[in-house]
Amino acid sequence: MALTTAGYRIDGHDVREHHLEVPLDHTGAVPGTIGVFAREIVRDGGANRPYLVWFQGGPGNRANRPDSVGGWLDRALEDYRVLLLDQRGTGRSTPANRQTLTGDAAAQADYLSHLRADAIVADAEALRSALIGDEPWTLLGQSFGGFVITAYLSQSPAGVREAMITAGLPGLRTSAEDTYRLTYAATAKRNAEYFARHPQDEGTARAIAAHLDAEEEILPTGERLSSRRFRTLGISLGTRTGFDSLHYTLEDPFLTVDGTRRLRDGFLDGVGRALSFAPRPLYAALHESIYAQGAATGGATDWAAHRVREEFAEFALDAGPDAPFCFTGEHIYPWQFEEDPALVPLREATDLLARRADLPVLYDPHVLAENQVPVAAAIYHDDMFVPRRTSLATADAIRGLRPIITNDYQHDGIRVDGRNLLDRLIRTLRR
Fold first, then answer.
1. Exposure letters 242-259 (e unless 16+ CB within 10 A, then b)
2. Which of 8, 52, 210, 216 would give a disulfide with 80, using CB separation of 3.0 to 4.6 Å?
3. Are 277 and 283 in contact (CB under 8 A)?
C-alpha cells in the first residue's frame, strides 16, 4: 500500500495531498484495491502538532474543500495538523457512481456494501500507519462522521488518542425502522414549528403539491417534478437556516401564462438543484445501510423509511384542503431512484443492498463499555436527523464519554458555529 504525497502553500499553511491504495475488502475475501485521498493542512509552526482526522457527515459526501481557513478548521489548526479524508467512494478517493460502477446490479450492490463505516475505519487505519506508524491520532466527526468514529472506537481503539463527535451518536442496536419512527416524529415537530412561523406557507405548499398532481412541470434537468419529490425539500428544516431558505423558495412560486397557472422557471430551477442527488448519489444509495447490522438490528432495512412513513398520517400524500401537510426530512424512498436522473442507474443495485440481511455489525457494545479513549460528544436536543433518545443511550454505553447536551444548535451546529463548538469539545475533553 504505497503512499504518494504532493504539496502546495496557501496563506500561512502547508497543504499536502495524500493518495493511498488500500484493499477494496480489508478482510481479504474480495480481491482488488481502491484509492483513498486525504488533504492535510498544517499551519506554519504546527509541523510537530498531533494529527486530527475529520470525518465528514453523509454518508457519501466528500470532505470539505475550504476556500478559506475559518470556523472549526481554524480552531483545530491551533492545536492540530488536520487531515480531511475523502471517505471511500467520494471525492478524489476512487469514486463510486453511475459512471464508474461496473458489472450487473448484484456486482454493483456488492461493491456498495464495501463502502460502509467499518471499511472507512480500516482505510483510516491504513493511512495512519502510512503517515505516523503506531502513533494514535485525534478524531472529529459530524453526523455520519460520528457513526464512523463509534465504529472506530469499537474496531480499532488503539489508533485513537481522543475523539470528538457532533450530532453523530448512532443507536448501537437500533433498527432502521425504530430510527425512522423517531426522525419522522422530529420532522413533524419541525414542520409544525415552521408553519407556526410562516402560516401562509402551508397553503402555498399544499397548492404546489396539488398543482404538481394535476399538471406536468418539467425541471431543468428534464424530468417531471412530482408532488412527493417536492415534499422532500423538508430536509432543510433540520438546519439552522432551513426555515428561511424554504420560506424564500415558497414565497412566489406561481405565475399565469395565457390564463394558465404555472410554476415559475426560477422556482423550478431552485427546487431542481435542491433535490438533485447528482453531486452526491452515494448519500441516497448508502443511506439506509448505515443502520444495517444484520441480525443484530433485524436483518435487511428493506426501504424502512418508505414503510414507516405509512405509520404517520401527517406525511400522507393527500394535498386536499383539509389534509395535514408535512415535508419529509432525511428519508430516502425507492421512487427517488425512478425520478432523479442521477439515481436511476443505481436503482437495482440500491434495491438489492436494501434487501441484504447479512451486512456486518458495526458497533461492539462490549468494547465500548470498556472504552479507554477520551471522548466528548455534542448532542442536540432538537436534532431532526440523529435522534436525541438513541444518542443519549449510546453516550451512556460508551465508558467515559463526556456529553454536551444543548438546544443551541440544529444538526449543522459545526457548520454555523464551528469555532466555538470545537473549542467547547476540546475543553470538555481536557477538563
1. bbeebeebbeebeeeeee
2. 52
3. yes
DSSP assignment of 226-244: PHHHHGGGGGGGGSTTHHH
**Average pLDDT of adjacent 10-residue blocks, the chain of 431 residues:** 86 95 96 97 96 97 92 98 98 96 97 98 98 98 98 98 98 98 98 97 95 96 97 97 97 94 97 96 98 97 98 88 89 98 97 97 98 98 97 98 97 97 97 85
Does the annotation mark 358 as catalytic?
yes
Alpha-carbon gap, residue 308 to 301, rounded angstroms: 11
Q: Output the nine-digit C-alpha cell for 239.
A: 438546519
How far apart, in whole angstroms, are the C-alpha atoms of residue 423 and residue 431? Answer: 12
Which H helix or E strand runs over 141? strand 137-142
> Cα–Cα–Cα angle for 241, 244, 246, nearest 5°?
105
pLDDT at 319: 66
At residue 22, what are phi and psi to the nearest 5 degrees? Answer: -135, 160
What domains can be seen in the chain, in order of their start residue? 3-172+363-430 (3.40.50.1820), 176-354 (no CATH)
For the full predicted model, state whether its pTM sits above 0.70: yes
Known active-site residue 411: yes
Round to whole Å and give the CA distance between 422 and 392: 20
CA distances from 85 to 88, 121, 192, 396 (A): 9, 11, 37, 28
Catalytic residue among 104, 358, 381, 396: 358
Compute, in degrees rounded to 10, the torsion defined by CA atoms 120, 122, 128, 131.
-90
For the four alpha carbons of 235, 238, 244 and 245, in that order, the dihedral sign comes to negative
Reference 121, options 89, 96, 145, 92; nearest CA is 145
Q: What is the spatial distance between Cα 331 and Cα 125, in angstroms, rounded to a whole number?
A: 31
Task: Give the H/E segment covering residue 283.
Answer: helix 281-286
DSSP character at residue 359? P
Distance in angstroms (rounded) separating the CA atoms of residues 327 and 133? 48
Are the CB atoms for 253 and 204 separated by under 8 Å? yes
